[in-house]
Amino acid sequence: MAIELNWMVYMIRCSDCSLYTGITTDVERRFQQHCSGKGAKYFYGRTPEAVVYVESAHTRSSAAKREAEIKKLPKLYKEQLITESN
């Protein structure tokens, strides 16, 4: 049985310049859910503006671990990840 590496870690820049980090198998679908108010509670009171970072080739488990790592980073380091990925 092959391990499926179809999970992604993503960051969205919000209207208040904050960064939201999440995991999904379909970044575009998840972004649209956030935009329509059907995503995370984080977006109550702020608007998702753009997906600014994506890491692919994760399992569900490795994506969740990486999401937790990124969420613990100071914003400066998150911005560096975004800059280095472009």
From TrEMBL:
Superkingdom: Bacteria
Molecular-function GO terms, alphabetical: endonuclease activity
SUPFAM superfamilies in the cross-refs: GIY-YIG endonuclease
This protein's UniProt keywords: Endonuclease, Hydrolase, Nuclease
Record-linked Gene3D superfamilies: GIY-YIG endonuclease
InterPro entries reported in the protein's UniProt record: GIY-YIG_endonuc, GIY-YIG_endonuc_sf, UPF0213_domain
Domain GIY-YIG stretches: 5-83
Pfam families: GIY-YIG (PF01541)
Family statement drawn from the similarity comment of this UniProt entry: Belongs to the UPF0213 family.
Protein name as it appears in the record: Putative endonuclease
Protein species of origin: Pleionea mediterranea
